[in-house]
Design brief:
Blueprint (H helix, E strand, L loop, with lengths): L2 H9 L2 H4 L15 H23 L9 H5 L13 E4 L3 E4 L2 E2 H7 L14 H10 L5 H13 L5 H9 L6 H11 L5 H7 L7 H28 L13 H9 L4 H13 L8 H11 L4 H12 L7 H16 L5 H13 L17 H13 L4 H20 L10 H10 L8 H22 L12 H8 L5
Antiparallel strand pairs: 1-2, 2-3
Helix pairs in contact: 6-21, 7-11, 8-9, 8-11, 9-11, 9-15, 10-11, 11-12, 11-21, 12-13, 13-18, 13-21, 14-15, 14-21, 15-21, 16-20, 17-19, 18-20
């Protein structure tokens, strides 16, 4: 019996110790994904090099003073290969819309005709730009299961954090603690050539994504339940394993997780969580540190915590108006919310100018699986009355719902009542997008990010403005 085994058996309960039993995370390319990337990356590197050489000095936009003060919105200043967000069309993952992904990406065994897409398939698509086969996705599920072990010190960390610490803070801590496993940090310390950086980044991304369901479910079980987490089942897909480890055995909840983890994965490169991961990674911080920073950004109330705020607002409305309010009742409640100086949570988006397709597919899921749910009916009423009210204000650019306006009621329906935990689910999903982007950052050799900042006096000099 080795020292690690002795430590685990001595210090951790059996159910938590089981999370550490597997062999060290393997780098075996069971799925063939790394091999395929090895073919694609040189071609893309050559294409980008030629493009930059020919058009590197070409202007792609102008920057206004308002953009400098206004969160850099509208500035074209980043490259993100994995997804593009169109104001009128919504997100496209490598050129594919959400309905197209639902149609084309492989589904779980037994759900081939009517199930939701597997996140494994989306990850393959984000990395390669190609729709994977069923066999490739099944192999990726097994590869992630083989990489899912969590070091004992991370399990011990989570079990010893105060349960009053927000789940997102715990997730950021746990991911940072996983940095002990970084292949990238080890390779960089040993003098790896920069042409191989993407390979080590890829290994970290695969290992981290594989471990996240274990880490996230342990956080959930320690804070809200008895701390017991069942081990990974290598015969199940990533989402089903995550749902089971959380304690949810309902196959419909598994389907919800497959949809949820797919649609929350990526939203081009400028949102806070994606940009934070890219920014920190540009300093050649390893993927664990970069993703931990990403999760700190996602935890903000203007980003990932928004779904929690939506549900609080909905439950307050439900409590005040009763179980079956009329649209007139809902409309008055919305107007009262606005009159009090508050916004309607879940409505509007920094880029989108239409109903978020991620909202639409969740609505369709609810219509199919829980059409009589009281909270879903309230969400539907809100959907009917809010856009006209916001439009009449005359100053709202986007009166339509975003992804956060719907996800909470689905989770509530299946028994996940712990609202503070919802952003952790978002974070597990977001790993697929930001980490696939990080692999491409290293493959393309993108430099450290260092935009120029200006003082107000400096801006005034540029535009010849007078001081008041």
């Amino acid at each position: 019996m080795n020292g690690l085994t002795c430590f685990v058996r001595r210090c951790l309960p059996p159910s938590q110790a089981a999370l550490c039993w597997r062999a060290a995370s393997t780098s075996t390319d069971v799925s063939g994904l790394k091999a395929r990337l090895s073919q694609i990356i040189p071609e893309t590197q050559k294409d980008v090099k030629a493009f930059r050489k020919e058009h590197g000095a070409t202007k792609i936009g102008d920057v206004t003073v308002e953009m400098a003060y206004g969160g850099m919105r509208g500035i074209k200043g980043m490259v993100c290969e994995t997804s593009v967000l169109d104001a009128d069309e919504g997100i496209r993952f490598r050129g594919y819309s959400i309905p197209e992904c639902q149609k084309l990406l492989p589904r779980a065994p037994g759900m081939e005709t009517e199930g939701e897409p597997l996140p494994e398939g989306l990850f393959w698509l984000l990395l390669t730009g190609e729709v994977p086969t069923v066999d490739q996705v099944r192999a990726l599920s097994k590869e992630w299961a083989s990489r899912a072990s969590v070091p004992p010190h991370v399990v011990s960390l989570i079990t010893n954090l105060p349960t009053t610490l927000h789940p997102m803070s715990q997730l950021a801590c746990a991911v940072a603690a996983l940095q002990s496993e970084s292949r990238f940090a080890q390779a960089y310390g040993e003098g790896a050539h920069k042409s191989t950086y993407w390979e080590h980044c890829y290994e970290d991304a695969m290992n981290l994504i594989a471990k996240l369901p274990t880490v996230a479910s342990l956080i959930y079980k320690v804070i809200y339940k008895d701390g017991d987490v069942m081990p990974i089942d290598s015969n199940l897909d990533w989402s089903a394993n995550f749902a089971n480890m959380l304690g949810f055995r309902d196959e419909k909840f598994h389907e919800l997780m497959r949809l949820y983890l797919t649609i929350h994965s990526d939203h081009e490169g400028g949102n806070v969580s994606a940009h934070a991961c890219h920014l920190v990674g540009s300093a050649l911080s390893d993927p664990y540190l970069s993703f931990s920073a990403s999760m700190c950004g996602l935890a903000g109330p203007l980003h990932g915590l928004a779904n929690q705020e939506v549900l609080v607002w909905l439950t307050e409305m439900q409590s005040k108006l009763g179980g079956d309010p009329t649209q007139a009742d809902v409309a008055q409640y919305v107007k009262d919310t606005l009159a009090s100086g508050r916004v309607v949570p879940g409505y509007g988006h920094a880029v989108l100018r239409k109903t978020d397709p991620r909202y639409t597919c969740q609505r369709e899921f609810a219509q199919k699986h829980l059409p009589d749910d009281a909270l879903f009916k309230l969400v539907s009423n809100v959907y009917d009355v809010v856009p006209p009210i916001l439009t009449d204000l005359g100053k709202v650019k986007n009166p339509w719902p975003n992804v956060d306006a719907h996800s909470g009621c689905l989770l509530q329906h299946y028994g996940m009542k712990e609202m503070q935990y919802y952003t952790v689910l978002f974070g597990v999903s977001r790993a697929l997008g930001v980490l696939s982007s990080l692999v491409w950052d290293r493959a393309l050799g993108l430099p450290i990010e260092r935009p120029k900042s200006m003082s107000t006096d400096g801006l005034k000099k540029i535009v010849n403005a007078k001081n008041n």
